[in-house]
Design a protein that fits this description.
alpha/beta; Rossmann fold; 5-stranded parallel beta sheet; 6 helices; 14% strand
Length: 151
Amino acid sequence: MSTATVFARNAGSLPGVLLVEDNPDDAILIREAYARTRIANPIAVARDGVEALTLALDPSTDERPGLMLLDLVLPRLSGVDVISRLREAPRTRTMPIVVLSSSSEPDDIGASYAAGANSYLVKPLEFASLERLLRYATRYWLSHNERAPQV
């Protein structure tokens, strides 16, 4: 699926979610939990920080993800660096970025918010809790939150 397809907003389409997760097992669990929420927005997965930037800043489309769910510990470029670079780019400056990390370390939380994260969520250990967390977070950011106009 192309970036333009996932993040398109034409003719009633829904904004896409970009999951940035390098651990294949976590990515499978998160995608399964997301599917069970029955939220219709399409989801794409980036496996490292560079791929996340490539997808979010894709010059072949004017669209951006409606929401990024971002792990912190990533190969090639850390989650905090991803946030910082996305906040520098006009088209992603206001894109909602929710950190979804196994870390509850105050330094990680503080660095994420300082870089420009909108929210910081700790991955729960139980699948049912993960599903519930994703349901509430994605509904808020994709359904209730008013998106800033795209630049």
